[in-house]
Amino acid sequence: MEKFDTIVIGAGPAGLAAAHNLKSNGQNVAIVENNLWGGTCPNRGCDPKKVLLSGVEARDRIAQLQGKGFDELPNVNWKELEAFKETFTDPVSKGSRDGIVNAGITAIDGQPKFISENEIVVNGQDHYQAGKFIIATGQRPSYLNIKGKEHLLSSTDFLSLKKMPEDITIIGAGYIAFEMATIANATGAKVHVIHHNDHPLKGFNEGYALELVKQLEAKGVDFNFNVDTQAIEQQADGRYSITADGFELTTDLVIGATGRIANTDFLDFEKAGVEYTRHGVVVNAKLQSTNKNIYAIGDVVDTKQPKLTPVGGFEANYVSDILTGKTDKDLELPLIPTVVYGSPKLAKVGVQEGAEVVDQDVTGWFTYSHTNDPKAKIRIVLNDKSEIIGATLLSNNADSLINLLTMAIKDHMTHEDVIKQIMAYPTAASDLEYLF
Ligand SMILES: Cc1cc2nc3c(=O)[nH]c(=O)nc-3n(C[C@H](O)[C@H](O)[C@H](O)COP(=O)(O)OP(=O)(O)OC[C@H]3O[C@@H](n4cnc5c(N)ncnc54)[C@H](O)[C@@H]3O)c2cc1C
Ligand SMILES: NC(=O)c1ccc[n+]([C@@H]2O[C@H](COP(=O)([O-])OP(=O)(O)OC[C@H]3O[C@@H](n4cnc5c(N)ncnc54)[C@H](O)[C@@H]3O)[C@@H](O)[C@H]2O)c1
What we know:
Layout: E1 2-9, H1 13-24, E2 29-33, H2 40-44, H3 46-64, H4 78-89, H5 92-102, E3 106-109, E4 112-116, E5 119-122, E6 126-135, E7 139-141, H6 155-159, E8 167-171, H7 175-186, E9 190-194, H8 206-218, E10 222-224, E11 231-234, E12 240-244, E13 247-251, E14 253-256, E15 260-262, E16 276-277, E17 280-281, E18 294-296, H9 309-323, E19 338-340, E20 345-350, E21 356-361, H10 366-369, E22 377-382, E23 388-395, H11 398-410, H12 415-419
Parallel strand pairs: 1-2, 1-6, 2-3, 6-18, 8-9, 8-14, 9-10
Antiparallel strand pairs: 4-5, 5-6, 7-15, 11-12, 12-13, 16-17, 19-20, 20-23, 21-22, 22-23
Helix pairs in contact: 1-9, 3-4, 3-7
Bound molecules: flavin-adenine dinucleotide and nicotinamide-adenine-dinucleotide.
Cofactor: FAD
Keywords: FAD, Flavoprotein, NAD, Nucleotide-binding
Domain FAD/NAD(P)-binding: 4-312
């Protein structure tokens, strides 16, 4: 039986970062993966989505400038765009595994199960012991429990569609639903979004979320709110009929985007004394599970933190520091900016209410008018010392501006601090001094 200082279970962004960190700090480390090395983000999440969105952005920009230098609106060639995406995704698994092996970390392929508090067996035959374990098994799509649920496809399927159907329906109105709807719409598909209540993108400012709905509606996306899907049936012609109380829709393909569920099953946690809920592994403020030698990081953790790649990476660094004696403090996450990659993009950071809120429609400002953007809005929240403490942005460059505002909040910047800076002009950043 092989013994290690630490065994990491799950080779996504969080698990890989922890394994590399621990190894470079002199530990004897193994990492177990039961599927694609690299995990969700580079194989079936953030990165492939961003490649597909680059096509959307290029087309949107030209659409906005039609009659202002551009005549024809080009079509997105899905087959070519998908092939381009695969040039990024195809090398990920081998590259991630090779990186592990080259770093001198033991790479184990297969399905691990705990058989005691400090031992796992992989594929029912190979036994490994460790002083510490890190669970980094992430999440997978959760499907609605309705009649015909077997017809639901996931975001993973969407990102690898060989052909974009003429008509596609997405159930749910969270991050994934908006991003898939944006991509499918730009390829020319008729897109329907069905949502069980009238709160899309819960957690974002309601007015801004509804403005994004309006912008997508203007591009032809059909939103159906307060529709609680009851059944999906395949018709003789291969299409699908979606039904709810007083509602019926026929479509070519149905994507379920109603959240994700933690990968806590199949690991026999009971044998290791690790408690978990349907939201993930239960941890304390040091990301330690109910077994003090087993930690959890990334999407699989049952905390309220947004489940995002940089959060998993931060937690990996933190647990590595704990396990190498560099810290014994509780985890303190910094501000977490988050972006819905729609068209336009919706971003937020920090708190959303304060002593003063400056909410502006900036569509007419040069930054947005020279590209003829249909809508840009910026909401800045200040505290009683006039420091920026939060922001929500809706614009095509919200993704980069939100990072700048995150730094400004961290540095407790006021308007006076902002005007002391020189920002490259003309950019969204050089507008900052006029925003509040
Ligand atoms: C469509 C989509 C788009 C996204 N876009 C963004 C974005 O733009 N920005 C952003 O920050 N985040 C985004 N996310 C979220 C991001 O992908 C996750 O937060 C991130 O991948 C979490 O990393 P992780 O290492 O915790 O888990 P994962 O990346 O899920 O990795 C977990 C790994 O564990 C493996 N595993 C699972 N069970 C077992 C087991 N029993 N034994 C061994 N191995 C196991 C899995 O196969 C996987 O490789 C997106 C997610 C999706 C689905
Ligand atoms: N840009 C990004 O950073 C990004 C992109 C995609 C995914 N992600 C991560 O992945 C996670 C999962 O994304 P998601 O869009 O699946 O989740 P989500 O939590 O953002 O949205 C889920 C949606 O499904 C709805 N829903 C839940 N239960 C339902 C039910 N029974 N019937 C009908 N609708 C129901 C919710 O109201 C919500 O609108 C996100 O929370 C985020 O952490 C991030």
